[in-house]
Amino acid sequence: MSETTETSEAVLEGSYVPYTNSSPFQYASYNFENTALELARAQWPNYGDQHYLKGCKWSPDGTCLLTVVRGAGTHVMELPSDLYSGESIRTSRPIVPLQPAVSVPESGLIYDYCWYPGMNSSNAATCCWLSSGHSGPVHLWDAFSGDLRCTYRGYNNQDEIEPAISCVFSADGQSIFCGYKKNVKIFQTARPGRDFTEYPVQHQVSCIVASQAQPGVVAVGTWKNTIDLVSQSDGSFRHLCKLSGHKGGITTMAFSLDGFRLYSGARKDKEIICWDLRVPGRPMFCVPREVNTNQKIAIEISLDGKWLVSGGTDGKVQVWDVSEQTYPTVHMQMSLHSDCCNGVSLHPFRPILATASGQHHTLDPLHHTRNTSQYENALCMWWIGAQQEDPDLLTAIIKAASNS
């Protein structure tokens, strides 16, 4: 599909704005050889109701970062202005404290969220994100004001609103795919309300992703550890194949840039499986990671298709080079958090990695307390590009060594 025909309509107070899937920027050149340098951090307090983070996602234009905090709503953090340019960062650069530019105090649990794929800060109408939670319909939020633009309401057989467990935009932004207990509902982005079409499934849809390279191809993950690959055509779904190999329910998936590979991870499952969709009968390869809880631990594929990145319940971030190797080994492992690292997101145009940490900590059955030393609940930005030593700091170190 050409860029001129790849358009959709973003909803903004009844007006429609065309979206073209093009960018003036080049993909980031990540350097996973040096130790990650921390750039910025936001920390949430250790309240009794546990305000831990639930992932993080860079906006498509790279200007801001979206995160969800359990019990504290959704927050948008802007990229620090000094990080928009420059080929390298000095190791002496101070860590910038992050403050939310926009906060939405949604009540209850938020199950899933995603950016509008054509989000561009120079066009306010495209700056929005979706969120789904247990309290009601799918919401479309304004990224500038935090106002609610509209809702997409899925109804069950009893004509009751049911919450979407997962949600995602189509590659062109025209449609919204929402996963429910017994079906996938497809809404038209420009038509909020209760108009939708359905695709029936056998199990609850825990995770859903859309292919950017092959418009209309959608992977539907379930709590029954299976993945259905389907194709949307003429307003309906056509089943392509079923993938089965995980031990637990599917929690995270990502398509490769060319659309030929699908990476998936599951709860209480210490493997990421790579599926070759040209020969989908068996996994192409598996790589290990530490996941010993039911929590969603995100994976990310760099836009150039070279790097696979994953968090872990041990607080480590692992990186694999999947560009050429059939059975890749860990290229780099970074201990970035003292608590579970549940979110990883690579900046689209700068060598910056965002991570989110935190998890549910159970009560001590004898003392009814939690080990608060394990809490972190942090959103961080890390530089994974070229670094340079501060000449003044290096001179001071040499002088101090010579005096001793």
TrEMBL record:
<comment type="similarity">
    <text>Belongs to the TCAB1 family.</text>
</comment>
<dbReference type="Pfam" id="PF00400">
    <property type="entry name" value="WD40"/>
</dbReference>
<keyword id="KW-0677">Repeat</keyword>
<dbReference type="GO" id="GO:0015030">
    <property type="term" value="C:Cajal body"/>
</dbReference>
<dbReference type="GO" id="GO:0003723">
    <property type="term" value="F:RNA binding"/>
</dbReference>
<protein>
    <recommendedName>
        <fullName>WD repeat-containing protein 79</fullName>
    </recommendedName>
</protein>
<feature type="repeat" description="WD">
    <location>
        <begin position="298"/>
        <end position="330"/>
    </location>
</feature>
<keyword id="KW-0853">WD repeat</keyword>
<dbReference type="InterPro" id="IPR019775">
    <property type="entry name" value="WD40_repeat_CS"/>
</dbReference>
<dbReference type="GO" id="GO:0030576">
    <property type="term" value="P:Cajal body organization"/>
</dbReference>
<dbReference type="InterPro" id="IPR051150">
    <property type="entry name" value="SWT21/TCAB1_mRNA_Telomere"/>
</dbReference>
<dbReference type="InterPro" id="IPR036322">
    <property type="entry name" value="WD40_repeat_dom_sf"/>
</dbReference>
<dbReference type="InterPro" id="IPR015943">
    <property type="entry name" value="WD40/YVTN_repeat-like_dom_sf"/>
</dbReference>
<dbReference type="InterPro" id="IPR001680">
    <property type="entry name" value="WD40_rpt"/>
</dbReference>
